Each structure stands twice: as C-alpha cells, then as structure tokens.
C-alpha cells in the first residue's frame, strides 16, 4: 500500500487530507509547529489521518506539499534527498493578505519548487481547485469534477492519476511541467479556480 505524507496543514493540506479520509486512505499530516498542534485537526478528519513530524511526512511514498510560497524554502530545508519518490506540488506563488504574485523571473513556479526537493519526481496537482471543492463530493454535480495534473515522469504521473481517480475525480494529464504547471499556476494560468465537471 502506498504511503502518503502531507507537508503543510493549511487550507489545501487539510482539504487533501479530508478527501483521503473520506476514502479511507491513510496519511500523515505535518506542519511547522509539530504534531501536538494538529491534534484537533486530525481528530476532526478521522482515524486514517495521523499527525506527524515534517520528516515523517517527507519519508512517505507520495508527499504532497502545500505551504505558503515564502515559507517553502524553510519548510523543505534539511530534508533528505527524496530518492525518486513522488512529491506533489500543490503550491501557488501568491499569498494572503495582499495576493501579490511572487517574482519568478519567467520560470514556472514548479521549476522553482523542483529545486527545493532534490531527488523527487515532481507532479503538479491539487493546487487549482478551491479547498471546499477538493474536500467536497467530487460527483456532487452529477458528473466527475475535473482535477488536472502534470509532470515529467510518466510513472509518477500515473501514480498520481490513480490517486485522483480513487478520490472520485476525473483526472486530466496536462503533459510535462513546462506546459501543464503554467496552465494551472495561480496567478497567470487559465485553469485555476474553474469548477469543471465531466459528464458521461
């Protein structure tokens, strides 16, 4: 059974954990303040979600990272090489309260993210839906809510695509990071915040 870790317990991290919990999938949720600070959150999410350290979450087979953009370097600093494991980039280069775009010098945010997770097979996913749509019923409108993903490693994308399917969403592969990550990047891409549903 594939193990899942989550680094970042904000809106997206907890929405992803909630989607996993609804499908009986085990995961370890972590943040910068330590497992004790997550006791209430994991109790509300259900028995398949446990609180752990950042290092414990980062050691899983699939690791989703959802952290405020400016805090990403600190959140990932000092972790061991990922050794070919899958890391899902669920981040957007923007932050409250001002929502000013971060300066990326022409690069896609996933390119910058990939440099912070040495040895990882990076897949961009779970960043473009609003948290309540990610944690909600993906078939509430009668079809399947669309969830985009992209990456440069075919096997890593297939694994994330299988997870997307298991969660009840309709996954669409947008191709390599250089293309797909830009399409779902917020701000700048045309696809974030769209609630698209596939029927039939």
Number of strands: 9
Percentage of helical residues? 25-40%
Name the poorly predicted regions: none
How is the biggest beta sheet arranged? Answer: 9 strands, mixed
Structural class by sheet pairing and helices: alpha/beta
CA(first)-CA(last) distance? 30 Å
What would CATH call the homologous superfamily? NAD(P)-binding Rossmann-like Domain
Rg (CA only): 15 Å
Strand content: 15-25%
Which CATH architecture is right? 3-Layer(aba) Sandwich
Shape: globular
The pLDDT mean sits at 95
The third-level CATH topology is: Rossmann fold
Number of helices: 8
Tell me what the structure shows:
There is one protein chain. By secondary structure, the chain is α/β, with parallel strands linked by helices. It has one domain (4-198): 3-Layer(aba) Sandwich (Rossmann fold), CATH 3.40.50.720. Helices cover 30% and strands 19% of the residues. It is built from 8 helices and 9 strands. β2 (27-30), α2 and β3 form a beta-alpha-beta unit. The longest helix has 13 residues, at 154-166.
